[in-house]
Amino acid sequence: DTAVSQTPKYLVTQMGNDKSIKCEQNLGHDTMYWYKQDSKKFLKIMFSYNNKELIINETVPNRFSPKSPDKAHLNLHINSLELGDSAVYFCASSQDRRGTGNYEQYFGPGTRLTVT
Amino acid sequence: AQTVTQSQPEMSVQEAETVTLSCTYDTSESDYYLFWYKQPPSRQMILVIRQEAYKQQNATENRFSVNFQKAAKSFSLKISDSQLGDAAMYFCAYRSYLQGAQKLVFGQGTRLTINP
Hints:
The structure holds 2 protein chains of 2 kinds. Chain A is mostly beta strands. Chain A has no helices and 11 strands.
């Protein structure tokens, strides 16, 4: 049973296109995240949702729009793709919103996005 | 803002020997969590070990242990009896609590090579 799943795992597309990455968790967590890992392997948070509510938006271009239809799903839609969007995107989830307690973040397998 | 620094971009060790990966961080908080994540070539993010800042005792998980120096803001990872399967990128992470939610702040990563 996969805890956090992402589709697709690989995505190759051309500049200017619009694409979506889907994420689902079956852990019953109420908080989900998107992280971006760039070509130098640096990982940075993009968004965080709690119970379908956006709670963190880390100065990400508004071409990126997360959508949470329910607390088990957090999708990432990217408009007008640019070369610099090429990266690995990780979805994660955790149980504890308040930052207390021993609740780790569980990561999905990542989606490698290549923009040509 | 919290920052995490890993000063060793690459490390190598002989199989069965011990290696220590360094991590320093900067924060004004007194209560927080620190983590080490492993990312093998499969790119899956795997939690190796966690440390709660209010606990003075260093965390250990089988062959993995940390040296947590709170005053120095240092959090190093020691891998004993290195195995070929330990080869991976290792990321130190600080769990920040901001805007009513937690997020992970990652270091730049250290690529660990195990020589047979």
